[in-house]
Amino acid sequence: MANTAITVARGDGIGPEIMDATLGILEGAGARLDIEEIEIGEKVYLAGNPAGVAPEAFDSLRRTKVFLKAPITTPQGGGYKSLNVTVRKTFGLYANVRPCVSYHPFVETKHPVMDVVIVRENEEDVYGGIEYRQTAQVTQCLKLISRPGTEKIVRYAFEYARANSRKKVTCFTKDNIMKITDGLFHKIFDEIAPEYPDIENEHWIVDIGSAKLADAPENFDVLVLPNLYGDVLSDVAAQIAGSVGLAGSANIGEHIAMFEAIHGSAPRRAGQNLANPSGLFLGAVMMLVHIGQTDVAERAHNAWLRTMEDGIHTYDIFKEGVSKEKVGTREFAEAVVARMGQRPETLKAVTYKSGEADASGASGGASPEGRASGAGAASKKETVGVDVYLDWAGGSADELGSKVSGLSGDGLKLTSIANRGVKVYPEGATETFCSDHWRCRFVAESGREVGHKQIAALLSRFAEDGLDFIKTENLCDFDGKPGYSHAQE
Amino acid sequence: MANTAITVARGDGIGPEIMDATLGILEGAGARLDIEEIEIGEKVYLAGNPAGVAPEAFDSLRRTKVFLKAPITTPQGGGYKSLNVTVRKTFGLYANVRPCVSYHPFVETKHPVMDVVIVRENEEDVYGGIEYRQTAQVTQCLKLISRPGTEKIVRYAFEYARANSRKKVTCFTKDNIMKITDGLFHKIFDEIAPEYPDIENEHWIVDIGSAKLADAPENFDVLVLPNLYGDVLSDVAAQIAGSVGLAGSANIGEHIAMFEAIHGSAPRRAGQNLANPSGLFLGAVMMLVHIGQTDVAERAHNAWLRTMEDGIHTYDIFKEGVSKEKVGTREFAEAVVARMGQRPETLKAVTYKSGEADASGASGGASPEGRASGAGAASKKETVGVDVYLDWAGGSADELGSKVSGLSGDGLKLTSIANRGVKVYPEGATETFCSDHWRCRFVAESGREVGHKQIAALLSRFAEDGLDFIKTENLCDFDGKPGYSHAQE
Fold it and tell me: Which residues of A touch B464 (CB under 8 A)?
């Protein structure tokens, strides 16, 4: 079988030695790889590349489409951008995949039965970092959830589950509160799940679901989560599994995929043959599955599991009475290589399906056509009103109400004013605290459609009155149903 | 000492019997209360009150300002509003306080040493439920964080810590990503913490902090959290403490405070003298501290702890070998009353400071003056540009760029276009997936201030070109510093 080209970066700190160990194990397992090496990290930052990666290095990534990356050190001081964010944003790495596994009784954990994979949406939610401060008192961040973004991640989770012989995919959202954004995520989960009748599916509200996950992770298998919940819960899951130092992760895009350890470069441990290469190695196993070398992945992963249960442990997990031999980075890798062909006896052996795993894992299952069809799910849109937000500290809600009522006209009329999501005019409760951030809702008189010229003209009237409008949000119906929330009364 | 008037609602399901038991214990402890009873819940919903509480009942709350509430049942079917949300929004209950305590070895838990209090901001963040769908593909929720809202909750957390003899307050945010919103929360935490030199303070990024909390809660004391993180982590903490059925909570406002159990009305257990009244009882203990009856609170709470460790348990926590006697709701309450004056021997006894606890706990420490000063922290604001968001599916970023560039003029010029927070024009990466939700950033030519008439005129030009602008966000500098984020490149 032909070799697969991959791009490798040895990184900083303990990076080079754990990469050597990892590549040594892959070689011992018979991996068919052509390695292109690129430089990333501290030296590259200090040479004047603000993202820690030279533009030429991107050419290698574009060519091989597979990136095995050791941890890096970002120099102290400002002005340096996150390398991972740059790669993720540039190449649209929409899925972060993180297996969180307990290795009881060989590694200490309060949760002996745990084998969870968190599939985290990686591009949307509040992580666009789209923020505004627009009044003295109030700051705002936009949370965006899109149909194509959600379709990609949900489909990827089910394809991953199938390729990795998993039984169940669980979704968490807060759609009892965020009916439109989290509601969309949940709805798409419910749309796609039936296409995978071989895989069980369930949904929990994120607060209750998180409590269950933290207390009884043995009840979960694959989880698919919006970005923020995924960020928090993938750290929680890795931590309670007791295996942060042993965990790898994958970042999957339509064009390129990146594999790494979840830990950092640990400069103080560097060059001492101390570091545990397991996190990067388990990232590399995900890479092997991704590129279709499932036979190699299975052999290497099972040899590693056997090494763990034989008690051959690096210092970080060595425990008197449990471990048998304390070894260095190199010796650990040699011990894994020596066990090629062996399988664990106490821990569960892994099995990777050949063939299918590749395509589905690699593409994420969301073809461009798939996305187009998602987009096509829309529907007739009508603009039926506009929310105009004001920076105003001039008095009470009623005073603002009578002032702004006067701006109705030209087919638009003021229906309500809200403050931080609570209706305060007309007929607000006197106890409601009001910030300087007010939302004035205008809708079409007699329910007709609103034109963009009417909205621009309304804003002109606000401007003439000297009112500081700070933002607007159109109110749209989709297929006759309102695409906006109402203020809480 | 004079009695304190409180409002009591007996609720639905197990509500009446656990309220009887709770009031019985309070009476046995010598609580000085005048009880006004109101009706809430199922019957009130079905009588046509959409929030499950009659308007007259609010008068009692406004009078007593203290509400001890049993769980209720919300009828099946749509159109019913959450009673808790209504009370919280109407009266501005800005703080949710939830102690999460392990009662090892008397109640099973993986975390034997745990005594954490979560103080959750209760009004802001994504819980305003301010949402918009504005394109075929993209939905949006606004996350709002305000200075006065954050000052109130942070100050409350420190005052609570002081009144309850706590040693440390910890804050979690994600301000490495959300520099403006979560950044404000963190900044205000750092501003207020030094006013409490007797109390330790620390901040963690929410992902790492959550992992620590879920794995080693013994390292935390009081936590103060923005709404969403608080929602998720208060459920996680209650669950891992093993005491969801035993937990009470307080919702604190400037005018009114509400105390309850965190569990529901469990209709299937109703009327059988089975239910554990401890959650509501521990909510009532918080109420006693709130109204300054700290002597009664301490006596009742210690008698309850003694009952727990004497193994007098209701069915829900009864465990062969640990428990001594399985009792019903009434008998449990009697057992607590019989132990008045006794203190626990294995579990830690509680101590409530007299006097101070009241004022600080009750007012939350954030006086109207305090809030005004917060508002005063602003600063010179200048509008320097505007982001115009478009619903557009007409082609590539470059095509949109040349189209929209033509709308520059009148002192405003297009500087960039972004899609889901990533810059795509000029000079975007070809791999970046673009949704139909585009942000066009216009800034003043030669860095002058932008007038609202210019913004309205710009929108008129968009309208004339037939472009569907769906939202705008002004770009403002505060004291010369940008109050908005830049697109990720």
Answer: 453
Cα dihedral A241, A243, A246, A249 sign: positive
Region of A273 on the Ramachandran plot (φ > 0 left; ψ -120 to 50 alpha; else beta) = left
3-state secondary structure A210-238: HHHHHHCHHHCCEEEECHHHHHHHHHHHH
- The closest alpha carbon to A171, from A194, A204, A124, belongs to A204
Q: Is the pLDDT of residue B368 over 60?
A: no
Contact assessment for residue B474 and residue B386, using Cβ atoms and an 8 Å cutoff = yes
Within A3-78, residue ranges assigned H as helices are 15-28, 42-46, 55-64
In DSSP terms, B132 is beta-bridged to A484, B140
Give the nearest partner residue to A139 out of B174, B180, B208, using CB atoms. Answer: B180
The residue behind tokens 């918009």 is: B132
Tell me the residue type at B250. A
Nearest 10 degrees: CA dihedral of B469, B470, B474, B475? -80
DSSP state of A100: E
The DSSP secondary structure of A165-211, one letter per residue, reads: T--EEEEEE-TTT-TTHHHHHHHHHHHHGGG-TTSEEEEEEHHHHHH
Say if strands A412-419 and A437-444 run parallel, antiparallel, or are unpaired. Answer: antiparallel
- A450, A384 in Cβ contact below 8 A? yes
Residues B116 and B167: beta-carbon distance below 8 Å:
no
| Nearest residue to A388 (alpha-carbon basis) of A488, A452, A447, A455 | A455
- How would you classify the pairing of strands B312-313 and B33-38? unpaired
Q: Which of B92, B133, B485 sits opposite A431 (nearest CB)?
A: B92
pLDDT of residue A255: 85
Report the distance separating Cα A49 and Cα A72, nearest Å: 14
Q: Which of B92, B381, B456 sits opposite A432 (nearest CB)?
A: B92
CB contacts < 8 A, A to B, total 365
Query: Nearest by CB to B463, which of A144, A236, A452?
Result: A452
A476 touches A485 (CB < 8 A): no
Residue with tokens 């006013």: B195
* Residue B406, H or E segment: none
Alpha-carbon span B210 to B99, nearest angstrom: 16
* Nearest alpha-carbon partner for A88 in A251, A255, A259: A251
3-state SS assignment for residue A52: coil
Rg (CA), chain A: 27
Question: pLDDT tens for residues A338-384?
Answer: 999 999 999 999 998 775 443 333 344 333 333 334 444 557 999 99
pLDDT at B355: 58
Tell me how far apart the alpha carbons of residues A200 and A194 are, in angstroms, rounded to a whole number.
9
Burial B17-53 (b: 16+ CB within 10 A, else e): bbbbbbbbbbebbebebeebebbbbbebbeeebebbb
From chain A, the residues in CB contact with B132 under 8 A are 180, 473-476, 483-485
Chosen for mutation from B88, B96, B132 (greatest number of chain A CBs closer than 10 Å) is: B132
pLDDT at A168: 98
**A88 pLDDT more than 90:** no
Q: Which two tokens stand for residue B460?
A: 């008129």
Q: Which of A126, A130, A437, A454 would you mutate first to test chain B, the one with the most B CBs within 10 A?
A: A130
The ipTM value here is 0.90
**How far is the C-alpha of A190 from the C-alpha of B82, rounded, in Å?**
25
Q: Do B147 and A137 touch (CB under 8 A)?
A: yes
Give the C-alpha separation, A30 to A24, whole Å.
10
Tokens of A74: 């970002």
pLDDT at B472: 95
pLDDT, one tens digit per residue, over B241-254 is 987 889 999 999 98
